Amino acid sequence: MKKTAIYVWLFVVGAIPVQLFAQKSADTLKLNLQQSIELLLSQNLSVKAANEAHQQTEYDLKAARGYYMPQIGVNATFGVTSDPVTLDLSPIGDALEGIYKISAIQNQLIGANPAITSNPLYKLLLQGAQQGTQQGLDAINNANWEKILLDDNLGKISADLKWPIFTGGKITAANKAAKASANEQLEKTRMITNAEITTLVQRYYGLQLFIEVVKVRNTVLEGMHQHLENARKMEQNGIISEAERLHAEVAYAQAEKEYKKAVSSTLRT
Questions:
Q1: Per residue in 180-194, pLDDT tens?
Q2: Which of 28, 38, 82, 194 has a CA that sits 20 to 30 A from residue 89's CA?
């Protein structure tokens, strides 16, 4: 099927001789019907707004479907204090040190007893007790009795998982509402698009009709112009009268009027 094309000529009525109206402009715009429809679908504001509204309802529908899926949340907190939070355990260390010192004194008193030192077994046990007491005192003196409970930089990260099992039909209702809204907007988009295309087609073929009228009027005008030139020459040669030449001028003026009218109607289309 042969595609029909629109030719739009730019005329400046009255600024150039009427005879030049028949010439095509160098800036002729040529669009076939399919190209015109594609241009409308990509540039028409009403169609673009309708498509964007439909796209938004599709996003809402996808979001509603997401209610069926598990939801994962991650929380993170971070804080800074001037000093770390500590716990002083030195009183406990002092108490333990006192106990070991008492044990050391007891070991000294036992070691002063000749009955203990003269017995090899007792002497060996006493040496073990003295060594254990000294190790305990060394451990107490070397231990850090101030414990840090919280650092000056505090951080916490937590994650949770939620998966709806029963919501009383709220999720199903939300999905139905979102789907209905998407379908409704889709129909609105189709109606708006079809209406704009219908208007375009009407104007497209209406413009073609006006262009054909311009061509016909231009042909008539050229014929009347040639007829007028012939009448002027024939009058000069005495072949026809002045009245007949005036009649040719009236016919030419009428043809010129009809041509300008057709051009004006075409430019307003």
A1: 999 999 999 999 999
A2: 82
Let me know if 128 is exposed, middle or buried by CB neighbors in 10 A (0-12, 13-18, 19+). exposed
187, containing H or E segment:
helix 170-236
38-42, 198-202, 206-210, 221-225: range with lowest mean pLDDT: 206-210
DSSP for 63-75, please give it: HHHGGGS-EEEEE
The first and second tokens of residue 22, run together, are: 């028949």
